Amino acid sequence: MSALVPLLVTLPLLGAAIALIFGRRRRVQVGVSLLTLTAVAVIAGILLYTVDSTGNALAVSVGGWPIPFGIVLYVDRLAALLVVVSSVVLLAVLLFSVGQGAADGDDETPVSIFHPSYLILAAGIFNAFIAGDLFNLYVGFEILLVASYVLITLGSTESRIRTGVVYIVVSLVSSILFLAAIAAIYGALGTVNIAQLSERMTELPSEVQLVLHLMLLLAFSIKAAVFPLSFWLPDSYPTAPAPVTAVFAGLLTKVGVYAMIRTETQIFRDSDVNTLLLIVALATMIFGVLGAVAQAELKRILSFTLVSHIGYMVFGLAVATPAALGATIYYMVHHIVVQTTLFLAVGLIERRAGSTSILKVKGLMRAAPVIAVLYFLPAINLGGLPPFSGFIGKVALFDAAAQVGTPLMYALIFGGIITSLLTLYALMRAWNLAFWREEEDGMEEAGVAERTAYLGAAPAALVQTERRVIPRIMTAATAGMVAVTLALTVFAGPLYDLCTSIGEALQQPITLVQLDEDVAS
Amino acid sequence: MNVSLVLIIVMGALFAAGVFAMLERSLTRVLIGFLLLGNAANLFLLIVMGKPGLAPFFGVASDPEDMSDPLPQALTLTAIVITFAVSAFLLALIYRSWQLGQADTVEDDEADIAVRERGAVDEDTMDDESTAEDDEATTDFVGTETAPITVLHHRDVDALRDDAPIDMPGDRPTGRSPDTGRGDDA
Question: Complex ipTM, two decimals?
């Protein structure tokens, strides 16, 4: 079984190379990407099943080096679950983008780079999830970041270059910080293997541990968009193409959260910064959602709610009991799926109405009932209305925090409830304006008709009308993702059991002996 | 672990200079800052290698104590490759940014400014940095006779289409854009 593990990274990289060769043939590119990601999703499913049924993690020593020296790929339940979820999300978003590209008929625009970059992004995400040493985690981050630089400036238009610059510079700073932290850790402990790190870390003086700990957390917090390091996100995500924004919002920040979980539960078990993390989590939730309330553009509203909901995950991580960690994992899975679905639904709105500003869009309820349903379901799910998965995740989180029962915990629970309500408010305000508001009649209607008649003669009119038609495959991809969000609710029981067992497993650090056995098996 | 003090001082200086350069709005300086920071981090990896020794090949040294630690060298090589790729991408980005006529500076977020202005309709006390004449922002390309390339806005090229569904920012104040700068000189 462990022979399948490296395929998670090598298959997308191989697919990217093939897609690059067939840069001028879109159909071949689409075929290669779909085939690769489907294969990876199947492999990820097999890995999750194997790991969950045997209860042992799978580990591969790349190149056959003995354990603490070589590169180790490590798949436990947590990594396998996240790889499964992200491969499903990547596949759905790829389908969406195929539909969008086909409708745009963009033979002229330089999209030949989209499929290779997208596959490399996938390879980077999977590599980060299954990395068994700190430096391989860094390499995974760099692979996905460089691919994301290309995707966020796709087509290199003026607005995308402007927002891309902010994103790229911020990411570069966090990468350098991460690299410096790795150097410092290697200098102190002489290893980068996460199993050996957790064994040797206890020998260090606590001040040194704290410095190393904060350096790593700082680097990951920038990537996970934790307040106050989150200001780059709502600026840079919304201008990218809809599928790119969707996959970034769903996965890239969660890779940062995943790295934070590993840091807290595996590497720094003695050094305790949980109080700091709790305060930061509260600030992330509140300030993020207040930003969302102030916005008038759907993609920006969603970007701010994305930041604010990262706060829930940091909250669960900082509570640090098995129940809280389990709830965090469940919430992470829920949030990856729901946030991606919402961005896809907004992509549909954008195509249907030609804008995502809720001040301009109106009357969608009557004009596009399917889109209305596809937006409404994930929106109330993210807002945390029962019986959806967002509600289950939040209740589990609050329950775990209430069991600890300190005043700070109750402050965070209160903050979490406020955030949830404000999220609902921001999303429902958008719903009221964009879907329920009727198209106004009278004066303006006449003006619009006149203008459309005039525009009909313009050369670009054809493009405009074409954009209003939504290809079925886009709707189908979004509907599929909505179905996944509902499945998270329906199958919450088994999934939550899996998350709880992950939470309990995280209490025990991975040891070298165990890693050796996992490689041997 | 014995390490050279000179290397540590050099590393500190590189980090400081890199951070200082990265704080500028000019993208070219950000690139220089990134290169300095990247080299500083690589140097850091080399420093933690400890005492340099013989090449860590089988049979070269009888005692492992005489060998260099090979792992930081491997890490440094990887990091150098990554820095190299990212700087190449940054150069392309800077070139494109300049080509689009907005010089090579980091711009403020337009939607942020819009939100700010909506909030500050009544009170005109908001200090909007971006409207102030940004004389301090350094651009290395503006108004140079040596620039050999005709600047094309993307709206001049029919084949390029902006699919991003935002309102076009309209005609920017062209005071700093390269083409007018050159026109003034001529």
Answer: 0.82
